[in-house]
Design goal:
The complex is a heterodimer of chains A (about 260) and B (about 120). Chain A is of the alpha/beta class and about 260 residues long. Chain A is built from eight helices and seven strands. Chain A has a seven-stranded mixed β-sheet with strand order 3-2-1-4-6-5-7, sandwiched between helices. In chain A, helix 1 links the parallel strand 1 and strand 2. Chain B is mainly α and about 120 residues long. The chains are: A alpha/beta (about 260), B mainly alpha (about 120). At the A-B interface, strand 3 and helix 3 of A face helix 4 of B.
Chain lengths: ~260, ~120
């Protein structure tokens, strides 16, 4: 149940209002074998957020991903595959080194529309939250993103577990479209989970006292697999994430400096 | 007699391994110590076979299975220490890899075609 009223986007602009154009924003696009879509994703982002710098982290792709990255984006090539956690953290290290105010994660497969990325950044600046997650299910009236019943069940299980562990409802903790302020960038650069970073950081940030918000976003429909293999994979995903989350409750979130 | 030879051989072998890997700089002292301390009891037992009975009585172990359990927990302890070492190293390797990749971008050698050749 969405319980925060600051989620509605402010439409009137005042001179003091911070926008994605007035602060330094870095878009982090981790890419593993995304040669077919990466070029379009970068160009779309540049079109919708002209002042935003883009860094593509090529996580040791075996295809032509790194050659397809347009010169508008900074290309960081990992010498071998580190996995999503390691690739994502590379982007946050870069953001921390270059002192960006905001970092926004965008998937390389084109699932996250760039105008929605811009909205997530705007919400971060307006709400004063430390992390804003673009949720597909924040607004229960939004019916444009359809999930298979089994996936929806998995999302509900994780939502319920997070509710028990944090006392707050995060409607879409697996969403990869999210914006972080400089405090979270610093935290991520020093430590980031390897296994299931998206749901795990929601819990860890909450425990460390960061403010995490959600807004409703529209995402492009991905070709949802309905084969039994992907269903079993989904079941194991939910089990593994649940165990990781439970283990995270005994872990020290971000050791104090 | 056979028991003495076997125990002496086992203990001597473990101690020799510790010394050899120490000399060849293949093993840090702290890990060589593990070999040293596991080899020593074998040598002691070779000369004093009743030592194990003495130990069992002193520790009030009544069933031999408990001895196996003790051995198993010792091995699991060593294994967990090993896994902890590997985990820390994995973290360090990840951090190094990330910094190298960021530096390569800064140096402008990230888009050179030669780097496309994967090993």
């Amino acid at each position: 149940m969405p319980e925060d009223s600051t989620a509605s986007p402010v439409t009137e602009s005042s001179p003091s209002r911070r926008t994605p154009e007035s602060v330094r924003v870095l878009a982090i696009v981790p890419a593993y074998n995304e040669a077919g879509s990466i070029s379009q994703v970068v160009r779309d982002l540049k079109h919708h957020m002209p002042n935003c710098d883009i860094v593509v982290v090529d996580d040791g792709s075996t295809d032509a991903t790194s050659r397809e990255v347009p010169p508008e984006a900074v290309l960081i090539r990992l010498p071998f595959n580190l996995g999503i956690g390691g690739a994502m953290q590379t982007g946050y290290r870069y953001a921390q080194l270059h002192r960006y105010d905001v970092a926004v994660q965008v998937d390389a497969d084109g699932q996250h529309p760039p105008d929605q990325a811009r909205r997530v950044v705007q919400e971060l600046l307006d709400s004063g939250a430390d992390l804003v997650i673009g949720s597909r299910f924040y607004d229960p009236d939004q019916k444009d993103y359809h999930q298979t019943a089994s996936r929806m069940l998995g999302i509900r299980v994780l939502r319920g577990l997070l509710k028990i562990l944090t006392g707050k409802t995060y409607t879409d903790c697996t969403s990869g479209l999210r914006a972080a302020n400089h405090r979270v960038i610093k935290a991520y650069a020093s430590w980031y989970p390897d296994d299931y970073p998206e749901p795990e950081v929601v819990l860890l940030l909450h425990r460390a006292g960061f403010r995490v918000h959600e807004i409703q976003v529209h995402m492009k429909q991905r070709a949802a697999g309905v084969s039994s293999i992907s269903m079993w994979r989904g079941v194991f995903y939910v089990i593994k994430v649940s165990v990781s989350l439970l283990l995270d409750t005994i872990r020290q979130p971000w050791p104090k400096e | 007699m056979i028991r003495t030879i076997v125990l002496l051989f086992l203990g001597g072998w473990l101690l020799l391994m510790a010394i050899r890997s120490l000399r060849a700089m293949r093993l840090k002292e702290r890990y060589a110590l593990i070999f040293f301390f596991t080899g020593l009891p074998f040598v002691v037992l070779a000369y004093w076979p009743d030592g194990i009975v003495f130990l069992v009585e002193k520790l009030e172990i009544e069933k031999p299975t408990l001895l196996v359990l003790g051995l198993a927990s010792f091995l699991i302890l060593m294994l967990s220490k090993l896994l902890a070492v590997i985990s820390v190293q994995e973290r360090k390797i990840t951090a190094l890899t990330q910094m190298v990749a960021i530096l390569m971008e800064k140096q402008g050698i990230n888009r050179i075609p030669e780097h496309d050749q994967k090993p």
